[in-house]
Amino acid sequence: MAENSNLVDDATAIEIELGSGDEGDEASTYRTQNDPSQPYQRSNVIERKGSVSIHCVAVDVVHGTLEPEGELATLLVFDFQFDPNKRARRIVEAKMSFVFASTGGDPAPAVLKIAPRGRMTVVPTPQTESTTRGAKAEAGGGALGISLGAGLTWEKSVSRETSDATTVVGSIDLVGRNYGASNGVSWALIENRSVETGVPAHVRTAVLLQRAAPASSSSSSSAFQAIVTIRAQADLRSSVSWLFGKTPKDDPILYDPSLPPTHKLQHYEVDQLGKVDLQALSAIAFTNDGASG
Asked: 240: closest CA among 250, 249, 232?
């Protein structure tokens, strides 16, 4: 998905990216790593703490099939949290993306469905915009012999109803190549500029992947990974120099399809993942009450 160019004028961009770092608070330096004893499917996907905290948690990971005896599939559910830690600071735009790849010789998983998907607006705020245009009439005789007093002006006012809203855009993407099935997903969050409430504090997303049959019977040959990127833009008072410390490269998330399902949000029929209602799993809220992690 292309980068959105409609950014607020008084904003400072920050990037939180697996594989790159940011200069900032020394106390906020953090590296998300895989546990050497349990390297697969870590729940704490990414965590950054500073003047603004950003946290991504894997809520559910379910490996199975789209239908009985059908194609292999994986369902992933993530919670994102965006928390300003100091007064008068907010995140005005954020973009979260995942790129999936095989760690063996098999094809990369293909993204079938995501939620939320497309462009959604949250809590629109209607308002009236009024434009007034004026002109000054000169003294003297007109075409009909009518004289106007010096300095007399006329004005024309035009009013129109407009609305603004918090916007969420979900997209299935083809990343790093121009052929084959889509291997990436992304979500963009843009604040309601009229009320300056920042992006939603809690966003839950869901992804359904289709996996190729492994080339061999070993579980490692069907393993795959996800590389996560989070880019955020904060209001001007949240200077990029204090948001996040310089962070070493984070580990990609590793997935092992032989691991059991998590079933945290609900019980999933692992042989009918194609019937799961992803939209019902997703959520958007302006508070983190009840958020996982």
From this structure: 232
* CA distances, 246 to each of 15, 24, 35, 177, 198 (Å): 11, 6, 21, 30, 25
DSSP conformation letters of 239-252: -HHHH----PPPPP
Q: Which residues of the chain have pLDDT under 50?
A: 1-29, 88, 127, 137, 139, 142-148, 153, 161-162, 219-220, 238-248, 290-293
Question: Is residue 281 within 8 Å of 77, Cβ to Cβ?
Answer: yes
Nearest 10 degrees: CA dihedral of 250, 252, 256, 262? Answer: 70
Instruction: Look at residue 255 and give its three-state secondary structure.
Output: strand
Is this prediction's pTM over 0.85?
no
Give yes or no for a contact between 191 and 122, defined as CB atoms under 8 angstroms apart.
no
For position 148, what pLDDT does the model report?
46
